[in-house]
Amino acid sequence: MGHTLDAKHLKRYKDLTRLFLKYGRSDLRDRAGLDDTLPDEDRPGEEGEDTDASGMADDLEEMGPTFVKLGQLLSTRPDLFPPEVLKELSRLQDRVEPFDEEEVTRIVEEELGVRISKAFREFSTKPLAAASLAQVHSAVLRDGRPVAVKVQRPGIRSMIRDDMEVLEDLADTVEKRSEAGKRYAVTQMLEEFKGSLMQELDFRKEARNLEALAENLKEFDRIVVPQPVEDYTTSRVLTMDFVAGRKITSLSPLARMEMEGEALAEQLFQAYLKQILVDGFFHADPHPGNVFLTDDGQLALIDLGMVARIAPSMQEKLLKLLLAVSEGRGEDAAEIAIGMGTKRSDFEEKNYLHKVSQLVERHQDSTVEDIDIGRVVMELNRLSAEHGIRLPADLTMLGKTLLNLDEVGRTLDPTFDPNAAIRRHAADIMQRRMLKSASPANLFSSVLEMNDFMQRLPARLNRVLDTVADNELRMRVDAFDEVHMMEGLQKIANRITIGLILAALIIGAAMLMQVDTDFQILGYPGLAMICFLAAAVGGVILVVEILLHDEKQDKTPPPR
């Protein structure tokens, strides 16, 4: 990017640098190359001094919306922050004051091009909820349809642009000045974050997400996805169906007893397995605040600003990983993770296999109430980072999604077992994947490839037959040298034969020693001595032959 530090952002630079030096993993703090960017009086204390993990979430909230979103992203990066900080970041939620009613009216009228009284029969300027990027108001269309209107905060885009400039400058500095910055690809991570955040700022994309998710989940009768009102939706205003209900976290014990928690938890988890492993498009932020229990006992999924997409090849690996974890096959889970990730030079395979096996087996032995498959996946990400392997972003996003989903499932049904749910639905997921691969688009693609193959086949076959007819066909086979092998076998056979003859001479000489004859050599029977001498000479010749003429094995290992 080639950024240089801009004087107008000096306070932001200082705040961010101090934040990382205070809460980041100690080994990364030492290698990040930021220590000398702060004056002594602004540097945080030594490790363990005033580094309460909950303080990071508070600090990020004070810095504004961009950094709240950044904190939510960083909660999926166990390679950058210690576990206690990640735990706090995962709970980071938007807690902001609503903006003025006059601003709400101005933005809605400016975006829709008409007065609010013309577009809506009723419009409440008091928000139902306020977040860092937008706030939601209840309204009624002219035809009597109740809707929720999501209005973007004024000036939020320019604020995020300025904040992203600061983050890009610091990321560029860290990557240029330290090996740690290059290893963890901080500029690439920031580019992905920027793209995700800019998509959240375009409410037309969220409207498309709502439509796509509703289509994918139409078979689930207990799940509702509010639909957008096309004519009342722009990049800064999103009008959608109003969902009458309550957040599941606000339900009283009596209300929880009255709802069909077991059936709701089962269908919600099944719906997410379909989103992740079949559709490859899923609602990536199902924390309890984004899941409503409607007045008629259904579950509504709201706030689709954050979604994720997974390629088919990655879906297959994720399915294998989830099955291995749910069945307690720790070593298999580790092998699958290794195949999914990118190894660094300091990768410790043996130790990694041992740690992952322990992790999976430990959770397999837990009670149903204690098992969280999302927690296992997040812990797997942390172990991978610690042992020198970088797992894909898909897996970190999946881990956080499942972690939130586990919490929702426990709220609906305290005895719900996500591991058992994965095993129950594995066969159905595989069947759906096979049916999806047999879709008309895939079949047409296969037909086109077959057509191309058939068109090229006659010419290729003619060339092969002409080559055979002209006796010009050559086959190149990488194999051992059979001539050399036969020579070696013959040499072995000869040595064995000579050895047998020498052994016979020695045995014969020993037997002839018992026969007293007139012919003697050195006082011993002459014939026996001749056999001994012949055996001795033959043995010496054999040893010399081996030492001088046999090929010596090259013990130098081949280059890798």
Description:
By secondary structure, the protein is of the alpha+beta class. The chain has 5 domains: 7-93 and 169-195, no CATH class; 100-153 and 202-242, Phosphorylase Kinase, domain 1; 250-438, no CATH class; 441-476; 482-549. The protein has 22 helices and 15 strands. Strands 1, 2, 3, 4 and 6 form a 5-stranded antiparallel beta sheet that branches. Strands 5-10-9-7 form a 4-stranded mixed beta sheet. Strands 8-11 form a two-stranded antiparallel sheet. Helix 3 (54-63) packs antiparallel against helix 4, helix 8 (156-177) packs antiparallel against helix 10 (186-200) and helix 21 packs antiparallel against helix 22 (526-549). It is elongated and about 140 Å long.
Chart the SSEs and their pairings:
Elements: H1 10-23, H2 26-31, H3 54-63, H4 65-74, H5 83-90, H6 101-112, H7 116-119, E1 120-123, E2 129-130, E3 134-141, E4 146-152, H8 156-177, H9 179-183, H10 186-200, H11 203-216, E5 223-224, E6 237-241, E7 245-247, H12 253-258, H13 261-279, E8 281-283, E9 291-294, E10 299-301, E11 307-309, H14 312-326, H15 330-340, E12 342-343, H16 349-364, H17 373-386, E13 389-390, H18 393-412, H19 418-437, H20 440-469, H21 482-512, E14 520-521, E15 524-525, H22 526-549
Helix pairs in contact: 1-8, 3-4, 8-10, 13-18, 13-19, 14-15, 14-19, 15-16, 16-17, 17-18, 21-22
